[in-house]
């Protein structure tokens, strides 16, 4: 039997509508591979905006729960679970890791079935698939930082290391100075990349990117002007790696067109369904790479521990990385701030009322 019967959650009841904050009923029992987690904190990112706006098309799973990067504590384990135990602290992530992939849980809300994926983090108690959580030491961690390990940080690391295969001599161009874009700047400096340019529509985000180590910043006004400004800066030394985090078709086109003939062009952002991108594909036959990233091909149980180690040894510090803290009751305000382009990551702290 489940030791927690009810909890509070943010529910996507209808597409393009505010999230509903209400009490929900948890399943009656845990099935093989399922783990009950008390969620301490959750990140909020562009993926949730995409879900709310149904950018991939009509949402067939409404109503449902949301969130895929979080920090919490194990309260109960289901049959067959071997990688975590009662009381363990865990990072919650959407990329599959070790352990069983369970069936997704079914909650109840207002007498109807409430759907959820293998992991959700915008509910105070969550039934999560074992392979969507990674155990971390039972030490005191900053709960505003740990959720970043579930997506933003591990994705950024994977994009650079696995997708782009970044090297010391590379010149990096990033489109989008959001949560992932700023982390790409920080991690690129860790990799030793000296030239990191970043483009965004918000001047305050670019200022923060510069503080984090970006060597060049550009305001995006339109495709033609941005191309001209980048060409004037790069001349013949075009960037060897270009990463788009925005999903904006014009940004994707600029990344592709301004990068060198053998560049690695990595797409992290996802365009809205129906949006088209126009590219001259001949360079792809002669060494240029265009690749869509799936979370940077991150391996949670390896990358999370690596990043924690880098932080604990002082090789990485995130005191300068901006987070904005909200209670669950203010989640729609957090969504609004994310849409407006507020700097940094939106974090939901479940200890706040």
CATH class of the largest domain: Alpha Beta
Under CATH, the topology of the largest domain is which? Answer: Quinone Oxidoreductase, Chain A, domain 1
- Return Rg in Å: 20 Å
DSSP summary: helix tally: 8
Our count of domains comes out at 2
Order of helices and strands: EEEHEEEEEEEHEHEHEHEHEEHEHE
Proportion in β-strands? 25-35%
| Largest sheet report | 7 strands, mixed
Shape assignment: globular
Strand segment count: 18
Content-based structural category: alpha/beta
In helices, the fraction of residues equals 10-25%
Low-confidence stretches: none
Q: For the residues shown, what is the average pLDDT?
A: 96
Can you walk through the features of this model?
The structure is a single chain. The protein is an alpha/beta fold and 353 residues long. It has 2 domains: 172 residues, Medium-chain alcohol dehydrogenases, catalytic domain (Quinone Oxidoreductase, Chain A, domain 1); 142 residues, NAD(P)-binding Rossmann-like Domain (Rossmann fold, 3-Layer(aba) Sandwich), CATH 3.40.50.720. The protein has 8 helices and 18 strands. Helix 2 crosses helix 3, helix 2 packs across helix 7 and helix 5 packs parallel to helix 6. The chain is globular. The model has no long low-confidence stretch (mean pLDDT 96).
């Amino acid at each position: 039997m489940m030791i927690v019967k009810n909890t509070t959650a943010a529910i996507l009841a209808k597409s393009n509508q505010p999230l509903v904050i209400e009490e929900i009923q948890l399943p009656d029992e845990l099935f093989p591979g399922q783990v009950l987690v008390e969620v301490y904190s959750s990140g909020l990112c562009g993926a949730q905006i995409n879900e709310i706006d149904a950018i991939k098309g009509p949402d067939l799973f409404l109503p449902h729960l949301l969130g895929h990067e979080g920090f919490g504590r194990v309260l109960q384990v289901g049959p067959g679970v071997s990688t975590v135990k009662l009381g363990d602290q865990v990072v919650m992530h959407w990329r599959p890791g070790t352990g069983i992939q369970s069936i997704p849980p079914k909650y109840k809300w207002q007498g109807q079935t409430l759907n959820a994926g293998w992991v959700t983090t915008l509910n105070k108690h969550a039934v999560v698939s074992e392979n969507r959580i990674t155990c971390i030491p039972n030490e005191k961690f900053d709960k505003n930082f740990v959720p970043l390990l579930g997506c933003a940080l591990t994705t950024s690391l994977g994009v650079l290391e696995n997708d782009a295969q970044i090297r010391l001599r590379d010149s990096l161009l990033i489109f989008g100075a959001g949560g992932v874009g700023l982390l790409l700047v920080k991690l690129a400096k860790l990799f030793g990349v000296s030239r990191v340019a970043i483009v965004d529509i918000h001047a305050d985000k670019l200022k923060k990117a510069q503080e984090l180590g970006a060597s060049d910043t550009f305001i995006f006004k339109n495709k033609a002007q941005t191309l001209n400004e980048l060409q004037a800066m790069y001349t013949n030394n075009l960037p060897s790696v270009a990463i788009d985090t925005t999903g904006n078709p014009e940004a994707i086109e600029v990344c592709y067109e301004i990068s060198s003939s053998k560049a690695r062009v990595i797409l992290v952002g996802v365009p809205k369904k129906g949006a088209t991108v126009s590219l001259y594909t001949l360079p792809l036959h002669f060494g240029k790479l265009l690749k869509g990233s799936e979370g940077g091909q991150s391996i949670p149980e390896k990358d999370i521990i690596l990043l924690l180690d880098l932080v604990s040894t002082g090789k990485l510090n995130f005191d300068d990385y901006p987070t904005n803290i909200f209670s669950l009751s203010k989640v729609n305000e957090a969504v609004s701030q994310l849409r407006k382009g507020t700097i940094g990551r939106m974090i939901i702290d479940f200890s706040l009322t």
